[in-house]
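Example 3.
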Amino acid sequence: MNRREFNTWLATAGLVGAAGVPFGFTGALAQGKPGTLNSVIQPEPPTLILGLNQLGPTQTVAGKIYESLLTYGFDLAPMPSLADSWTISEDGKTYTFKLAKGVTWHDGKPFSAEDVVFTTSKFLIETHPRARAIFERCESITAPDPETVVFKLKEPFGPFIQAFEVSTCPIMPKHLYENTDYRNNPANQTPVGTGPFKLQQWVRGSHIHLVKHEAYYRPGLPKLNEIYYRIIPDAASRSLALETGQVQLTQFGDVETFDVPRLRQLPNITLTTKGYEFFAPLAWLDLNNRVKPLDDKRVRQAILYALDRNFIRDKIWFGLGRIPTGPINSATKFYDAKVKTYEHSIDKAKALLEEAGKKPGEVKLKLLQLPYGEVWTRTGEYVKQALSKVGIEVTLESADVAGWSKRVADWDYEMTFNYLYQYGDPALGVARSYVSTNIRKGVLFSNMSGYVNPEVDKAFAEGAATADPAKRQAAYSRAQQILAEEVPVAWFLEIEFPTMHDKSLQNLITTAIGVNDTFKNAERKG
Amino acid sequence: MTGILAAVGARLAKTVAVILLIATVNFMLVHAAPGDPALVIAGQSGATDQKFLDTLRAEYGLDRPVAVQLGTYLGKVVRFDLGFSYRQQRPVLDLILERLPATLLLTLTAFSLALLGGTMLGLVAGTRAGRWSDTAVTIVSLVLYATPIFWLGLILVLIFSVRLGWLPAFGYETVGGGMTGFARVLDILRHLVLPAATLGFFYLAVYARLMRASIIEVSHQDYVKTARAKGLTETQVIRRHMLRNALLPVITIAGVQAGTLVGGSIVVETVFAWPGLGRLIFEAVIQRDYPVLLGIFLVLSILVIAFNILTDILYRIVDPRIGAVR
């Protein structure tokens, strides 16, 4: 290099160096302040009006803004929220709720029992399929006084007391919505709830800022001043945000399972899988019972034997889950472990296939991958390998969310993955996947595998139609025994979502609704 | 004068026709993808029934024949009405306008730095062909060209945010910082450094390689030899005779790339949680939010056309012969 060249390079290097100075490249980044919680939300909710939209992210953010009458403990027992107390009549048909006093909406208007009547008899009936299926069972919903609501059912419905969780029954303000077009109401631009936090600002694509509702009716609560939900679309970036302290809380599937072992080792991070008991997601390999040879029980059993579910749980899901015994998650009510079990056994799988008259290599099946993240792709690759060991040849197919939804709703698949929330009770979140009355083409999350068994239909109907716990248990135990024998789908994991948060956060997860609850008791110490 | 007006008029008419054609093709393509927004919304809610699906489809007009939907759409486009987002329940134009500034800031910064830096590096390498500075530029640009953008982004975050703690890992500005005025500008600039560098490095490599090749080619031309022979200094030769001619291919490629830069920013915006248009596209595709998708496609098409016109104008400035031919 001659001197002129050297000088040119030196000048360039100097320029690059100088450019850094005004940006103040010094010190670590801000870690937030006490009283402030920074979390992540992904994907960005389309709206925060919980009565109109119940997508997962909407529930998490709007769960701080809206409330329902009840919330639920880790054992799924009801706990007060907007209702202070409640009674159930002897015949299981009348539910009476006494509401909390001094409750106001975020716009300052008083809350009353009329809001509850309006929400459950009008608003949700029009906008919310899950709530409609429950509240349409009511003969009448009345408010004898401003602090009392009475639900009278046409027939007893066992899980009715489980229907007052905030995403199932968010109470909406009657004064803003009565006699309006709910979906196109100008009030939808700003959510107005009774919850401990209200919306301060929403910068689309960047963050949602919630602040304390000063007039909240529980004295001294909430303890946090504000919550920021940052919108970070990339999973690796979300992990880094937690690692660098820019956010103090991740939930559900925010962090990919393979990042969890590393992040949980960080000195300031704690991990809990509590707070998902109400949802109790159960994952399965969906088998389209209309497709040969999946119509043969022995082939379905062989598939379940061929899967090493411990391997899936430990190596692909990094230990985040439990091995299911049947259609009901062990966290859900009326779970019964006394059913036929399927340990990993290639020999048993091969024997069953032989019994069904299938030679090795003869069965060829397509597996439509679930487009909900890397962990599902890896599980699909494992299933392909595992089934090849028993002579079943699997071809993997992929689709995006819309494509997957369309094909599965139209029964245009052979095998796919699925997981559904159970909402605390088999009548709310389990029966729908197995009863023949719910086989409906074009409707997602109906009985998509097409499994039909009148005995199972009868057991689920009996379980729902009584409030007597012993009778319900008997009916659901019978359903579980039959289904575990018949294997309509291959259950492989009771998913445990990891909630990871900074150790400075306390009293965060206090109910079975977990991160979707109000966070009214949560606090952050400096 | 009337001749020029007629030419401008013809060009405008052609542009409008092209835009309408693009709008139609976009519409058909988007509707050809399997699945519809009602199913996606139902799917992500975890529960649905036929009544719910029917209500959504009727509300979005999806229950009408595709030809009728296309007619309605084109009618609206002509009136500059981009429609209403199914998912976000807000006018598409609002959504685009609120995301556009962030994207323009990111892409224009990355693009100008890449164009300027790439051209300079290419010039240095081309005029010193075969020497160590040329080899260095060639190797660095080859590496940058071959590195996947998302990976580069994550590595930069690991180094500058996680290890050194100098720069924020993601976002557009410090949320809750309450900064105003110059402090806010500085804050946004700090957030801009990593995403702009990530996006810019790839294009920088492209222009450096292109400029180098172009300079080497021009330096063998007769007029350059003549210039040297008549005793001009090397700087004069480069400035007056080589640079302008060598820039033509760079401008051509830059013109094409400028229009598609927003598409390229999808990955960077996702990695850095940058609240721009690229992410809006990505989310709209996933959710089959037809009005948003069509709106963005239309805006991008117009941008591409605008950049093409700009490239034509630049051509005429850099090389007057091109204008003279017409």
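Chain A touches chain B through 68 residues (CB under 8 Å). The mean pLDDT of chain A is 91.
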